[in-house]
């Protein structure tokens, strides 16, 4: 996997597979965003039956305290509060006959809800 830190941070909070980066870049471009500056924000929020859930959105640019990494041409933004929950995670894109979407493999998860939408660390 091609991973380089944009902000000089030695710790990479999230790694992104080539398929996830390709899909996200396609969506970013479809929104008319500049992929040299804009990126995908991955964050953790309160919610779900297990207590925490993942969130993703496109941002025009990172916040000043974000960890910013680049993977296969995709910029990823992670805020400091979310880093402690998702450090070491892998963002992947899965497509199949029944469903397609982004999936976070998080080594910090100790339990997930039955539907897989929320987790606890």
Description:
The protein is α+β, with helices and mostly antiparallel strands and 121 residues long. The chain has one domain (3-120): HesB-like domain (Hypothetical Protein Aq_1857, Chain: A), CATH 2.60.300.12. It contains two helices and ten strands. It has a five-stranded mixed β-sheet with strand order 1-5-6-3-4. Strands 2-7-8 form a three-stranded mixed β-sheet. The longest helix is centred in the N-terminal third of the chain and has 13 residues, at 18-30.
What secondary-structure arrangement, pairings included, does this model have?
Elements: E1 3-5, E2 14-16, H1 18-30, E3 39-46, E4 52-59, E5 67-71, E6 74-78, H2 80-86, E7 89-95, E8 100-105, E9 111-112, E10 119-120
Parallel strand pairs: 2-7, 3-6
Antiparallel strand pairs: 1-5, 3-4, 5-6, 7-8, 9-10
Specify the CATH homologous superfamily: HesB-like domain
Helix content: 10-25%
Biggest β-sheet: strands ordered side by side in the sheet: 1-5-6-3-4
CATH architecture term? Sandwich
Distance between the termini: 26 Å
Average pLDDT level:
81
Order of helices and strands: EEHEEEEHEEEE
Give the biggest beta sheet: 5 strands, mixed
Strand content: 35-45%
Low-pLDDT stretches: 1-10
Overall shape: globular
Q: How big is the Rg?
A: 14 Å
CATH topology: Hypothetical Protein Aq_1857, Chain: A
Work out the count of structural domains. Answer: 1
Tally of strands: 10
CATH class equals: Mainly Beta
How does the helix and strand content classify structurally?
Answer: alpha+beta
Instruction: Tell me the number of helical segments per DSSP (H or I, 4 or more residues long).
Output: 2
